[in-house]
Fold:
Amino acid sequence: MNGTAKFLLGLLFFTSLMTNIILICMFARKAAPGRNGCSPSKGESRSGGHRGQDSVFADLTAAEHDAVKRYVMALASLNITDDPWADPTENSLFLIELHLPRKEETHRYLEGVGDKPPREAIVVLFRGSQARIEEYVVGPLPEPTYHRDVTVEKYGRYPPFSSRPISNWEYDAFLHHVCQKELSKVTAILEESFGGAADKFYTIESQPRGFSSGRRETWLSFCFAQPGYFLQPMGFEIFLDHSDANVSQWEILKVLYNGQYFDSLEDLKEKYEQGHVKRVTLQGKKELGTLMPRTKTEGVPPLEVDPRGRRYTLDDNRVQYLNWSFDFGLSLVHGFRVFDARFAGQRVAYEVSVQEAASVYGASVGAAMLTKSLDTGFAMGSSAHELVRGVDCPYLATYVDTYQYVQTNSTRRVRNSICIFEYSTEHPLRRHLTNYISVGYGGQANSMLVVRTITDIGNYDYIWDFMFYQNGAMEVKVFATGYILTTYLTEGSLQYGHRVAANAVGNIHTHFMSFKVDLDIAGTNNYFLTKDMAYHEVQIPWSPERRVQVPKLVEKQLKTENEAALRFDQKIPRYLHIASNKTNKWGHNRSYRIQVLSFNGDHLPESVPEEAAVSWARYKVAITKHKDHESTSSSLYNQNDMWSPAVNFSSYINGESIENEDLVAWISTGFLHIPHAEDIPNTVTAGNGGGFFLRPHNYFDEDPSINSPDSVYLDPSIPSDSCELNPNACLQKEACMPNLPAFTYNGFDEVIQI
Structure:
């Protein structure tokens, strides 16, 4: 065979070999559906054989919203309109969402000893013809046949009509009455001072609305209509009385211009023309608040992948992840919530839910001076919008749609508004290197499941994370981002914040978040136990003449709601437990520990009239006996009637026994925010948040994560490339993984062996 023939034969062999390798790789990739890099990028829902549509906690579907709406609209006695722009004199349908059944009957059903509770909706009506707020339970779904008024049952009365949220009609009336009618009186001032007419400005509103129940009086603070307009205050505000349903009866009570107050726009105009007003000339700046990138985008951040496919399944609203299972949902008023959370088949929590997000501002002028905002007053859950893949959540997360009926005439589908993903943190869950006498390494990556949603109302965005660890712990975190609220720089304003732009002060404010945690520890007969330490002096047994100070375990059971209402302004034991009388194998009472992470500012003094609406924020943790009618710490109506709120949480604490009862923990967390230059253009999440852990404490006989498939063990007798006790050793061989380096470990070469 000549050289040319040998070359051609070799080339043919090489080509055939490479073709086969490529085909094998292609086949391997096709044969591994669900592995990231091989499966479609869109997160899918997978069936894992769970309860699915049988879940009593699943949010209402679009079809169920429609069925409830048809039923309510057909009731002649209510005479309801579904016009989302209905004026306050009409009877309007504001909100439809799931009505949670009573816990006792739900608990019996979940344990297989009772019938499934009827599926029902809660309907919020604003009866303008009677100036009354009403809430109805409508059921059973999917074809309703009954309704009942539950307003008094829930709130003890009918909340004042003035406590309803601001409607589409009212916002539109703000625009037309103030901006088009009233501001025409000072057009020349607006042109000279701010370079434009009213249609060139945006407004920010104050909350609550006025100084007493029954009123609707709002400061409207004007900003330049530029990106991030929250950062561009004009120093021009109007205090508007819009209590009357008739717009012609609305009245401007005060006007603020450049730190000076006037009785009306006519008063401002007269004094301005007489030269008795300190004038200002301002222009908005487009670049100040824009979030457009300032550098060219290059590459992408790291991408987290699931090399062997997702380890969680999703069936409707039921999630199964390793030893965890739970239902989830989104309250349109309060936000994200989890139900029936079980670890290794045992229920740990019946409900863990967001309740409220509150902020109290400090300022020297107008709107910001009065602002005490409660996000439930804007139906916080309905502000959960579509999440941005790869930024708000990992690119390969599973995304879930929600369906909302709030101030609309048809159900709104919000795509991708909840995301679910497994996440490995930057540190191991546990590890130890034995490096003396005997040698070995055992550890486990800290992989957990995260369920996330983000709410954004006005200037702030809150990121809500519910995390499930492999050791049976659960963590809830909230982070704040978005735009800070600013006021126009005037004399004395730097007492309330820092200057963050040419004419803007970032105002000091608090963030408080409220959560409901209904733990069921080995059943519903639980008690509240605290643990801490104290030094005490003991005699040294082998040297009686000497004494030593040693820490000692201090345990105390708190037996009433009053004892267990633990305020931020008191010294609180560091270990707080919901405990069972049942014990683990070592004879200790099984419990879960509540560990709060909070950097909050001071709560409002109780002498402040508005404090009643946020009385939950007095307490870091408060334990109450479970009652179905004490289901939330706040309400849709607290924002606009803070002086006599529909829900005053402090009334739940009334001295009842919490010994061997079904208990609920109400947890508050948050942080103090003193804005600074680095909050421009946006506040970052790093360091701006709070949360809490729910941690097993003698609940198990040992750490359950020792049974995790993620556990790794190494010792010198095991080849470093063996996959038997170290799954990382085989990552390089995965068909859909990037080009990874081979796993190696040389740590045992460095230890001292005896």
Notes: Residues 4-53 have pLDDT under 50 and may be disordered. Residues 3-30 form the longest helix (28 residues). The longest strand covers residues 412-436.
